[in-house]
Every structure is written in structure tokens, then in C-alpha cells.
Amino acid sequence: HDNDRIKKMRYHDLGNTGMKVSIIGFGAAPLGRVYDADLPEEQGVAALQHALRGGVNYIDTAPFYGQGKSEAVLGKALKDVPREAYYIATKVGRYELDVKGMFDFSADRVTRSIDESLKRLGLDYVDLIQVHDVEFASSLDLIIDETLPALEKIREEGKARFIGLTGYPIQVLRSIVERSKVKIDTVLSYCHLSLNDSSLLQHVTFFQERNIGLISASPLSMALLTDRGPPSWHPAHYEIKKACHLAVAHCKQHGHDLSELALKYSISYVNAVPLTLIGMESKEQVDKNLKAVHDGPSDEQEQFITDLIKRQVHCCFITISAHGSL
Ligand code: NAD
To answer: How far is the CA of 266 from the centre of ligand 1 (A)?
Structure first.
């Protein structure tokens, strides 16, 4: 059964890293209880193990997700899983919920951070270490002159194999790529290749020309495109939340599931963006999302997606604050 599911998964090259990643990756922010404050730990562990058995081979986490909780739960879930069965990415620079302790991109903090992450994860190395939400650094010079050189050292020490950036404003990610003296292997953009905002597509050539592995996170726009709706910290304006709520109802009325359509829409751009990270918190969600990958959109679903986009669900968040991002 699991072999059949693994055969149906598709794998693509992530930039020049040599990593062949499943087209959907396991977003582990939910394991830090950022969406469901009562999520039972065993349920998250079961979801991850189920995803790995279904052929998902990439996991994304960060110290910020539940202030260490996501990494600690992963540590338990991965204890008996062979290391070669998955790639894992974590991040540095973003920590506490309180704004005062939220960001620290200094070389000293970054250097301690990777050791703390490895300890929680129970691993000797991660595949990818990323600067978390670069736009919140006090200046981009700090990222260029301190954070990235510190990550280069971490890579040389064998604690991480590759180096990446994450953030919301794509232009900021591009400027750092252009200025960095350290080789950037991957860039993670979020909520920009979703049904309601596909602006990442305008930047694909820039990243491809530089052999950067492009990662798109949050195909459900951080739960905006779900029945349950977004969490209280979600940054979207009231009008956008309302439009998405109406879109859920509109889809239901016509026998469609907005989350399923949204994931199918995002992964249809796999040749431009090889990896889509989706947050999953139960085996049922994993099954549903694997089925979406296996089946792809039917002709009727494709038509419905086109109509949905025409109906102006298409809009982005406009501003994102430190309190409204992952
Ligand atoms: P997402 O858009 O993937 O949505 C996750 C939410 O959707 C969860 O509440 C989950 O319960 C729900 N969900 C998943 N599948 C569903 C389905 N089939 N039907 C209904 N609901 C479903 O948002 P995300 O988790 O924020 O993004 C994915 C991952 O990307 C994160 O977990 C994180 O690892 C990463 N990420 C990184 C950054 C960054 O580095 N700055 C930002 C955002 C996300």
C-alpha cells in the first residue's frame, strides 16, 4: 500500500543542491501549535510519519514554531526513521513571540541557534539552514555581513549542507541574493503562489537563472483557504478574510473543496517551483493532500479554478507584520 503511494509521488530537483524533493513538503509549523493550540502531540507525530510513508521526503521547521516545540516534536517523530529517508530544513534569526525577543540575526545568536535546533531535533546535521524572514532584520547589511557568513561557517562545520533565505517581500529576497558574498542555495517565499496571490511567478526566471531552488510555502495562504479559516494572528485584511470565507461557501455549494483546489493550483506550477510546503496536522489531511498530488485537477476543477480567479478572490495581504507571519 505504502509502496504504491510512494510510486505515485513525483520528485523534482531543488535548484543545484542535488536534492530530489517530493513536490509537496511537510510544513511543520502546525506541530508548534500555531494553528491549533490544542493539537495533540501524537496526532502531529502520526501525520508526519504518515506523510513520510506516502513519499513526502522534505520537512520544514524553525525554532520560532511553538518556540522550539515543532523541532522537539519532530525529534521524537524522527527518532527511529533512517536519516536518508528525508531532507530537513530549519531556520535561524526568529525566536520569541514577544517583539523584543523575536528577532536576532547576529552571528553569535545564529551560531548558538543551530546547536539548539540540532539538539531538539536529535540530529547531527540539517540539510538546509535558512535565515528566517530576512525583511525583519534591522538592516540588510546585517544579513549580508554577519548572518550569512555565520551560516557559511556552520555549513563548513558540517552542521548544515545548504544555505537559504525565507521572507515575504520577494524584492527583499532578490536584493539579498544579488548582494550576498555567500552562495545562496534556496529561497522560500510564502503566500505568493496561492489561488489568491500568484505574484511569485513573475520572479521565477530571476531565481532559476541563478540556480536557486525555489520553495513556495503556504498554498492555503496560512489557512485562509480552508473551511476552518485563518487563525487570529493572520495578517489578511478583514475584506480578504471575508472574500475567502465566501469562496469556501461558493465552492461547497458547487460540490468543490477550496483547500483541494488551492493545493492543486499551486502544485500545477511544479516546473517553475519544484517544492510546495503545506502544513499538515492529521493523517486525514495528509491523505487528502497526497490524493490531490496523485490525481491532479479534473477538467471540471480546472474550469472552476479559472472561474474562481476571475471572480476576484485574487488579492494579497498588502502588509505583513511581525505578529502576522510564520
Ligand atoms: P498552509 O497554507 O500550508 O496551511 C496550513 C493550514 O491548513 C493548517 O491549519 C492545516 O491544518 C490546514 N490544512 C492542510 N491541509 C488541509 C486540507 N487538505 N484541507 C483543509 N485544511 C488543510 O500554511 P503553513 O503551514 O503556514 O505553510 C506551510 C509551511 O511552510 C509551514 O508549516 C512552514 O513550515 C513553512 N512556512 C515558512 C515561512 C517562512 O519561513 N517565513 C512562512 C510560512 C510558512
So the answer is: 13
| Stretch (H or E) spanning 303 | helix 299-308
Spacing, Cα 279 to ligand 1 middle (Å):
3
Q: How far apart are CA 27 and CA 215, in angstroms?
A: 11
Who's near 1: CB < 8 A, 6+ residues apart? none
Does pLDDT of 300 surpass 60? Answer: yes
| Distance between CA atoms of residues 144 and 150, nearest Å | 10
Q: Which residues line ligand 1 (CB under 6 A)?
A: 27-30, 35, 60, 132-133, 166, 188, 190, 217-223, 226, 259, 277-281, 285, 288-289, 326
Domain residue extents for the chain: 2-324
pLDDT digits (tens, 9 = 90+) for 232-280: 999 998 888 998 999 999 999 999 999 999 999 999 999 999 999 999 9
CA of 222 to the centre of ligand 1 (A): 5
Phi, psi for 248 (deg, rounded to 5) = -60, -50
The architecture that CATH gives domain 2-324 is: Alpha-Beta Barrel (3.20)
Q: Report d(CA 152, CA 129) in Å as an integer.
A: 10
Examine the pLDDT at 302 and tell me if it is beyond 80.
yes
**Phi, psi (degrees; rounded to nearest 5) at 38:** -105, 10
Beta strands in 160-238 (DSSP E): 160-167, 186-190, 213-217
* pLDDT tens digits along 78-94: 999 999 999 999 999 99
Q: Whose CA is nearest to atom 40 of ligand 1?
A: 166
DSSP 183: P
* 65 catalytic residue (yes or no): yes
Q: Are 281 and 220 in contact (CB under 8 A)?
A: no
Cβ burial of 204 (10 Å; 0-12, 13-18, 19+) is middle
pLDDT at 159 over 70: yes
Q: How far apart are CA 15 and CA 6, in angstroms?
A: 22
